[in-house]
Design a protein that fits this description.
The complex is a heterodimer of chains A (651) and B (410). Chain A contains 24 helices and 14 strands. Chain A is α+β, with helices and mostly antiparallel strands. In chain A, helix 9 packs across helix 13, helix 10 packs antiparallel against helix 11 and helix 13 packs antiparallel against helix 14. Chain B is 49% helix and 8% strand. In chain B, strand 3 and strand 4 form a beta hairpin. Classes of the chains: A alpha+beta (651), B alpha/beta (410).
Chain lengths: 651, 410
């Protein structure tokens, strides 16, 4: 469709004219401006909603909201075209078969072997070995070999040694969707562990001997403690309501030596609405400070984030400080339970704060334990009530921790944002389907590529320059402030206003430091080379000297010593040398661009698709985005000064 | 320059008690005319030059409100002075830091604003920046919110919102951006005033300079900005910074005007972390000394007070202490890379944050953040060391090679 206008959300006067293309996988908007030919790519699977608004004099507006929080507003001149686009996008954004998803057609030109290597990057058996398992207390169980006991669990499950197959199967019958207690994390230092399950089918009074034995077995696997915590992550009211449906929570009287604890994290529906409300605030055209803060509060989003963090902190404390094992569950044990277990793990174990470890963590607590990616993130057309930003919240929790502990994580914010992007993009096979069983049936590993390999290949882009493996923050358990900690939770504009470049800091400390570190590394290498060359030269000169020593001995020595002298006395040389310095230091940036170069750094991001999608590339030459309101006040176009001021006056 | 001159008209503080002895005025206006203009402006604060934008020769001036009163008094000299600052064919903007409503009300008390008919080349823009009590109450509420020990997220956010502190920040920054935009992008000159021209006026003129002028983002440049635009320009520090947030007696003159300015600078610094030579600690230090200091720099309400108190003889200057290298190193931003551009901060709510370094200083653990800062310094220090080493080796090598060649030639 030609002559489509792409509106800029921040300033209504800045619109780009161009052509809209719909392909099998992307929506592509190409600007007419022959110089830039700026392209905006959006994957169909990223589209979360399409809204056709009332036709105006200029055309028919179409609003596309994406799952990665990009909002695109198009104006299509002809109502008919607009309708066609609308109808096609609705179809394209809601695939009904997995085979329609991008990852089945996406081909990064890797051969078979490389693809297989990619899938092997994260190996969960290796991970349990790293934790120190199997050992005297824990073993791998094959009860779920053919998904016979629980179809949303992985085939390989780790359970206490004393839990026989009989106990496991018995316990599974007493748990929602047969998700019996299984090991999530084992703390080597003190034998305490985190286990996870779904709610018990206790109703008002039902009991199950095997389930009681199962919890007993978990307690016995930690000889250092005579009780375990059972953490129900739901609000008490919700849990009680479940009893009427024959579900519910553990009765302390029936289980020996458990301490039961509610932690009120709201359910997926509350979270979905909360995000919705927060995004509405983010979308406001020019909100006042009060509008924004009030809207943020009203959305309750940060309150929910805090609830998840508090739960994670509680569990980490129980494990690390009290040495008590914890069993975590919610209703089905695949949403809140996954959030809480992974937050606790990241607090407890520095390994999960490394890039590789974080991949392992997501693979372990989310992918393998049957978090319903397909339902939650709407990969295939499904029930909109199943959609909820569960893993988004976990990712935000990690970001909040990064803000509090800037040196503790090996990866940076970009890493998190790209993972979030790909959870929705369906470009890689990792997050397809609702369970391991479904993925195996679809032969995902043979037909698609792994995101982890892709991120790993570009890991240089995702490094946190402040991370040092021997730094105190990278050791042991993290202890975030418990109280008063409300103000420690901040709005994450890097995520939720990700595509409003004008709102973000114009210079990035991370990128700056990354460039410095890169330069440092080059310098180190050069130093070595120079050192070698110098040594060689000295040697050869020495040899020379020996040959010619008779006559020239004296003069040579003199020459050397003068050269040393002159060295100390020529500071003016210094700057000259600096100028000819070849490496691309951040300081070398031409003045005009110095601020921009930094942004560029973050743009040359590893992901061709990502940067294309988000038209970051073009963000660079978009000088006007440096202007206060995100543009529109270049002298060239400001004949009408009124409108220009409107930028500030309107506020 | 050939358009502006230094005037010693205020030598004994005789014309305007809150101005310094020497001011910069248009060349074509003589001292006699200045005296008449002073009569027409509140507190005799006639328009003076605040900033000259080298790039295009546009200027920013500041003054107090004109005393037009209800019957629309005029002053020919005032009109002449203001017009004299424009180059032929250029236009200018008068930024009034009060809302139109407030400005109109001021007429009843003898104040007022410039009528556009009498200043045909100027357009007036009203921006609403709050004053006095409202700011003070805002600060008190904010500090109260920050000290709230409750665990309730909602209460924290609503208290933060109710304090309106960030709203004020946004208003001030927006006005400053507007002034800077007029000068740099529109190629127009600007006159800024509110009522007295000692508070919001100075916030706007000084922030606009930080946005426009890279020199103001260096330590020395920022110090001289504060001397020029705050101390010499007669911001009444003694009245405004007497009690700070914990004052119960609501003193009429108390207001965190300077703290708001520093907060705004911090907001810009946060958005351009590599463009400032100083760091957050420098701003916090200035905040502390403005309220309580062993140095004489911030005492008194204006230069006149300070010279009467003979402060330069009796006390030490803060600057002389700060500028010693051992102190200075604490305030240097390791990321600084001179940036000669105009920097346009974002004023969207998503881009503005609570200044934790000041307001949560005693309530939040800063250990991990300090460690990060240290790490940053180390990374950059190590880089510099290596650079020096490589350069040394390079030179050594080059010299040996020439030596070699010389030898071969021998």
């Amino acid at each position: 469709v030609e002559n489509v206008r792409l509106l800029d959300r921040l300033s209504s006067r800045k619109a780009a004219l161009g052509t809209l293309y719909l392909t099998a996988t992307h929506v592509i908007f190409v600007e007419n401006d022959s110089e830039t030919r700026k392209e905006t790519w959006v994957l169909h699977s990223q589209i979360s909603s399409i809204e056709k608004q009332a036709t105006t004099a200029t055309g028919c507006p179409l609003l596309i909201r994406c799952k990665n929080f990009q909002v695109i507003q198009l104006v299509i001149p002809q109502e008919r075209d607009c309708h066609d686009v609308y109808i096609s996008l609705i179809r394209l954004a809601r695939p009904v078969k997995y085979e329609e998803l991008y990852c089945f057609s996406f081909n990064p030109k890797l051969d078979k072997e490389e693809r297989e290597q990619g899938w092997k990057l994260v190996d969960l058996n290796e991970e349990y070995n790293r934790m120190g398992i199997p050992n005297n207390y824990w073993q791998i169980s094959d009860v779920n070999r053919d998904y016979g006991v629980c179809d949303s669990y992985p085939t390989e499950v780790y359970v206490p040694k004393s839990a026989t197959a009989h106990i496991i199967v018995g316990s599974s019958k007493f748990r929602s969707r047969r998700r019996f207690p299984a090991l999530s994390y084992y703390h080597k230092d003190n034998n305490a562990s985190i286990c996870r399950s779904s709610q018990p089918l206790s109703g008002f009074s039902a009991r199950c001997l095997e389930d009681e034995q199962m919890l007993q077995a978990i307690r016995k696997a930690n000889p250092g403690s005579d009780f375990i915590y059972v953490v129900d992550t739901r609000p008490k009211l919700n849990a009680m309501a479940n009893r009427a449906a024959g579900k519910g929570y553990e009765n302390e009287d029936n289980y020996s030596n458990i301490k039961f604890q509610f932690i009120g994290i709201e359910n997926i529906h509350v979270m979905r609405n909360s995000l919705q409300k927060m995004l509405e605030v983010c979308e406001l055209k020019s909100p006042s400070m009060s509008d924004f803060l009030w809207g943020l509060e009203n959305s309750g989003w940060l309150k929910h984030i805090k609830a998840i963090m508090d739960a994670g902190i509680f569990i980490a404390k129980a494990v690390a400080e009290e040495g008590v094992s914890v069993l975590v569950h919610c209703s089905d044990g695949w949403d809140r339970t996954a959030q809480v277990c992974s937050v606790a793990s990241i607090l407890l174990d520095p390994y999960y704060r490394t890039m590789k470890g974080f991949m392992v963590l997501i693979e372990k607590d989310w992918v393998s334990f049957g978090h319903k990616f397909n339902h939650r993130y709407g990969n295939l057309d499904g029930d909109p009530k199943e959609i909820s930003p569960v893993i988004d919240q976990f990712i935000e929790c990690v970001w909040q921790l990064m803000e509090q502990f800037p040196c503790a994580f090996e990866f940076n914010e970009r890493f998190l944002i790209h993972i979030q992007h790909h959870i929705y993009s369906c470009q890689f096979g990792n997050f397809l389907c609702n369970s391991q069983k479904e993925r195996r049936e679809l032969k995902i590993q043979e037909r698609t590529y792994s995101l982890w390999a892709h991120l790993w290949k570009n890991r240089a882009d995702y490094l946190n320059p402040l991370y040092r493996s021997n730094h105190s923050q990278t050791q042991g358990t993290l202890h975030p402030q418990m109280a008063p900690c409300n103000f420690l939770y901040k709005f994450w504009s890097g995520m939720y206003n990700r595509f409003e470049k004008g709102l973000h800091p114009r210079q990035s400390v991370t990128d700056y430091l990354m460039a410095v570190k890169e330069e440092t590394q080059q310098l180190e290498e050069e130093l070595e080379v120079l050192g070698e060359r110098l040594a060689n030269l000295q040697k050869s000169q020495l040899n020379d000297n020996k040959v010619q020593s008779k006559q020239q001995d004296r003069s040579k020595q003199l020459g050397l010593s003068t050269s040393n002298n002159s060295l100390a006395n020529t500071p003016q040389d210094y700057s000259n040398d600096l100028k000819s310095f070849p490496s691309r230091s951040p300081s070398q940036g031409d003045e005009e661009d110095s601020a921009l170069i930094l942004t560029q750094d973050n743009l040359k991001s590893s992901d061709p698709d990502l940067s294309a999608n988000s038209d970051q590339e073009s963000g660079v030459e978009d000088l006007s985005c440096r202007s206060p309101s995100g543009g529109g006040c270049l002298p060239s176009e400001d004949s009408g000064k009124d409108s220009d001021e409107a930028v500030f006056l309107a506020v | 320059t050939d358009e502006w001159r230094l005037s010693c008209i205020n030598k004994e503080f005789s014309v305007c008690p809150s101005y310094p002895p020497v001011v910069i005025v248009p060349k074509s206006i003589d001292d006699e005319a200045l005296r008449k203009v002073a009569m027409f402006r509140q507190g005799s604060r006639f328009p003076v030059l605040s900033y000259y934008h080298k790039k295009n020769g546009m200027v920013m001036m500041r003054s107090s409100q004109p005393l037009t009163g209800t019957n629309g008094r005029r002053c020919k000299e005032d009109e002449k002075l203001i017009n004299a600052t424009l180059r032929p064919g250029k236009r200018g903007y008068i930024i009034d830091t009060r809302s139109l409503n407030v400005a109109q009300q001021a007429r009843a008390k003898g104040g007022g604003f410039e009528q556009e008919v009498h200043y045909p080349q100027w357009r007036r823009i009203h921006k609403c920046i709050e004053r006095f009590n409202i700011l003070q109450e805002s600060l008190i509420k904010l500090v109260e919110a920050c000290n709230d020990q409750s665990h309730n997220m909602d209460r924290w956010l609503s208290k933060l919102e109710a304090s309106n502190w960030l709203t004020h920040i946004k208003e001030i920054l927006t006005a400053a951006c507007l002034a800077a935009q007029c000068i740099d992008r529109e190629g127009a000159s600007v006159l800024v005033h509110g009522t007295e021209g000692t508070d919001s006026t100075l916030q706007v003129t000084s922030l606009a300079q930080i946005i426009l002028d890279p020199r103001c983002r260096t330590i020395r440049g920022f110090e001289s900005l504060i001397v020029r635009e705050w101390l010499q320009a007669g911001h009444p520090f003694q009245q405004r910074c007497a009690q700070s947030a914990y004052s119960n007696s609501k003193q009429k003159w108390e207001a965190p005007v300077f703290l708001l300015f520093l907060d705004c600078v911090w907001q810009i610094l946060r958005q351009f972390p590599c463009s400032f030579e100083f760091n957050e600690q420098f701003l916090i230090m200035l905040f502390e000394h403005a309220y309580a200091s062993q140095f004489g720099t911030f005492l008194g309400n204006n230069e006149n007070d300070r010279s009467k108190l003979k402060l330069p003889h009796k006390t030490m200057s803060l600057w002389s202490w700060v500028n010693r290298s051992e102190e200075l190193s604490k305030f240097q931003n390791p990321l600084f890379e001179a940036n000669s551009l105009v920097i346009w901060p974002s004023v969207a709510p998503q881009s503005l944050q609570l200044w934790e370094g000041v307001f949560l200083r005693w309530n939040r653990p800063s250990k991990f953040l300090d460690e990060a800062h240290e790490e940053m310094i180390n990374i950059i220090k190590y880089n510099k060391e290596l650079q020096a080493k490589v350069n040394t080796l390079r030179r050594q090598l080059a010299e040996m090679e020439t030596d070699d060649r010389m030898q071969e030639n021998l």
